[in-house]
Amino acid sequence: MRTARRFVHTATTAGLTAVLTGAAMGGATAVSTPQDFARSSSLRIAATAGGPVAGPPRGVAAQWVDTTDAPSGITVKLPGRAKVEHDSVTRSGRTLQIREYGVSAGTNEAAAFQVTDTHGADLKAAPEGAIQGLAAHYSGTVSRNQPLEVSGYAARESRITFDRHGVPSVLLVRYVAADDHLVGLVASGPATDEKGVKQLYQQLTGSLRIP
Fold it and tell me: How far apart are CA 59 and CA 64, in angstroms?
C-alpha cells in the first residue's frame, strides 16, 4: 500500500531531480520521468485510500506532538509520535540526505513531514518540480498550484487529485525552500473526506517553525 510518506518521498525526489539537473544544465530545469524518481522504501504509515487504519483523532489537540528534525531544528506538530526514517537520493554524483516523519490520522488519512539537506544547491526549481513530479507519478491532476512565502522563504502549495484503486483521493502539499533544506508537508486522504484532509493540512502547515 502506498503511504503518505511514500508520497512525500516521491515528490521530494522529483524536486531534487529538478534542482540537480538544472544545476548540471547551467540553470535550466528539468524533471525526470516518473520511472526515474519512483522509488521503493520501507514505510509504516496509513495508506491514503484503502482499508481502515487505526490512528489518533485529529481533533484531539493533546495528541498533536511536536516533531523536531534534530539536524536542522525545523519543527512541526504531527497527530501522533513519529519515528524518523533516513533515506538519500543521488543525482549528478551528489548524494543528499533525507529524513522523513509520518503518522496516520483518523481512519484513512495521513500526514507527513520531511527535511532534505541540499548543501547549497539552488532550490528555485525544487518546490515546483516536486509538485509536478508527484502529480505525474500518480497520474494525478494539479487543480491548485500557487506560490507563497513561508517564514520569509519561497514556497509552493498545491492540491492534487488522483485515483487510488478506484477511490478518488486528494493530496494537499506544501514545499518550502529554506536555505540548505527542502521542507515537505503533506496531508492525504479520500476525496469524500476532503474537509478532514484540509483540517489536517491546516494544522500541519500552521505549526511549521523554521529557526
Answer: 9
What's the grid cell of residue 9?
518521498
Distance, CA of 158 to chain centre = 11
Report residue 203: phi and psi, to 5°.
Answer: -65, -40
- 7, 39, 87, 181, 186 from 82: Cα distances, Å: 16, 21, 15, 20, 14
User: Given its phi and psi angles, is residue 111 left (phi above 0), alpha (psi -120 to 50 degrees) or beta?
Assistant: beta
Q: What distances in angstroms separate CA 145 from CA 8, 27, 102, 110, one per listed residue?
A: 16, 22, 23, 21
Could you tell me the pTM of the whole model? 0.77
Query: 166 with 188: CB under 8 angstroms?
Result: no
Do the Cβ atoms of 139 and 10 come closer than 8 Å?
Answer: no
**What percent helix, strand, coil does the chain show, rounded to 5?**
25, 40, 35
Q: 520569509: which residue's cell?
A: 152
Bridge partner residues of 145 (DSSP) = 158
How does pLDDT run across 153-197, given as a tens digit for each residue? Answer: 999 999 999 887 788 989 999 999 998 898 999 998 899 999 999
